[in-house]
Specification:
Helix content is 32%, strand content 20%. It contains ten helices and twelve strands. The chain has helices at 13-24, 60-71, 80-85, 88-97, 131-138, 161-168, 221-238, 268-271, 273-293, 305-312, and strands at residues 2-7, 30-34, 48-53, 75-77, 105-108, 142-146, 156-158, 176-180, 186-193, 197-202, 242-250, 253-258. With 330 residues, the protein is an alpha/beta fold. The longest helix is centred in the last third of the chain and has 21 residues, at 273-293. The radius of gyration is 23 Å and the shape is globular. The chain has three domains: 2-84 and 288-296, 3-Layer(aba) Sandwich (Rossmann fold); 104-180, 2-Layer Sandwich (Dna Ligase, domain 1), CATH 3.30.1490; 186-259, no CATH class. Keywords: ATP-binding, Nucleotide-binding.
């Protein structure tokens, strides 16, 4: 029996519906259940062939548990090693590498020194920064947000340099990024599951939370196809099995705003009935695919092309060294 587990926190509608959907399909040798953790011993094989992770971003114990499970062969969705290393600023750099437009973005050092550091720890950092160059590049209005954050925590909309310096004082030890504000004509949130299943959802972030998926923008089919292409490029590069990508469309060009969402909102009350049904059905089918393809004890994780290309790249030839012959006579 291959077991599919789902690890979750306070959410209820998606995890319960996911478990019921997998089990309702009656696939021989496949069953789903909420993950139950009674003991975590290093290197001991986990009972689950597949685990869908919905909460480890907030619970370090779960993150360590998932890495241990993955090391013994569990297919964890999403890859806990990559998710631990990933952050939003790198996401933008990778997006440019794969040809997806993103807002102009600059990384900012934390306002306060990290723990166990002093000013001497920043010998290589110019002071002051080239603020004039930064403001000219990004422009105003702009958004300032944590370079590795999520859930719209510590996000500021800024209208001027003085506004930035004022708000920067509230960020403490957070490493922030300053990002161009996109004045958009339409906005979309796109689910991607398994690096191949894409659902484009009309989304209005300026609406109250319960009405954000009630939007309906009149856009050409060509724009939808472009967004599908961009969603796949990003998720293939990052290696996410379960993610959402948000696009702000300006002058007909979809600009990727946020695409580091490996535990995206899937609650029925927020995404709506039709989107909820798609996520539940698609996630169930994909988890079953992964369980059937699972090889016990092997690496069953998904690695993005950014990592795979680096691993498969030929090693650089070692530099030849020449030794001078001794002119001393024996």
């Amino acid at each position: 029996m291959k077991k599919i587990g789902i690890l979750f926190g306070r959410e209820r509608s998606f995890p319960n519906a996911f478990v019921e959907r997998v089990n309702s399909k009656g696939i021989d040798g496949i069953m789903a259940e909420p993950v139950k953790i009674e003991k975590v011993a290093q290197g001991q094989s986990d009972e689950y062939a597949v685990i869908i992770d919905r909460i480890s971003q907030d619970v370090p114990f779960y993150r360590a548990y998932l890495k241990n499970a993955a090391s013994t062969g569990t297919a964890v969705i999403n890859n806990p090693f990559w998710w631990s290393a990933d952050e939003k600023f790198f996401n933008n750099a990778l997006a440019l590498k794969v040809g997806v437009p993103v807002p102009k973005t600059v990384l900012l050092p934390s306002k306060e020194h990290p723990e166990d550091t002093t000013s001497d720890s920043f010998s290589n950092l110019a002071f002051p920064l080239d603020w004039d160059g930064i403001f000219e590049y990004v422009g105003f209005p702009a958004f300032m947000k944590p370079h590795a954050g999520g859930g719209w925590k510590n996000v500021y909309k800024l209208n001027s340099a003085s506004d930035l310096f004022d708000k920067l004082g509230e960020t403490g030890r957070l490493v922030m990024m300053l990002q161009e504000a996109i004045d958009f004509d339409s906005y979309f949130r796109c689910y991607c599951i398994g690096g191949k299943y894409v659902r484009i959802m009309h989304y209005e972030p300026r609406n109250p939370h319960h009405l954000r998926y009630a939007a309906n923008f009149d856009v050409p089919d060509s724009l939808i196809k472009t967004m599908e292409d961009y969603v796949l490029r990003l998720n293939h590069g990052l290696g996410y099995d379960f993610n959402t990508v948000e696009f702000a469309v300006r002058d007909g060009i979809p600009i990727a705003i946020d695409f580091c969402n490996p535990a995206p909102d899937a609650e029925l009350t927020s995404v709506g009935k039709d989107n909820f049904e798609w996520v539940v059905e698609t996630a169930a089918n994909y988890a079953i695919e992964r369980a059937q393809a699972h090889e016990p004890g092997k690496d069953n994780l998904t690695w993005g092309t950014f990592i795979k290309d680096a691993v498969s790249a030929p090693a650089k030839p070692k530099a030849k060294t020449t030794r001078k012959r001794s002119t001393k006579k024996s």
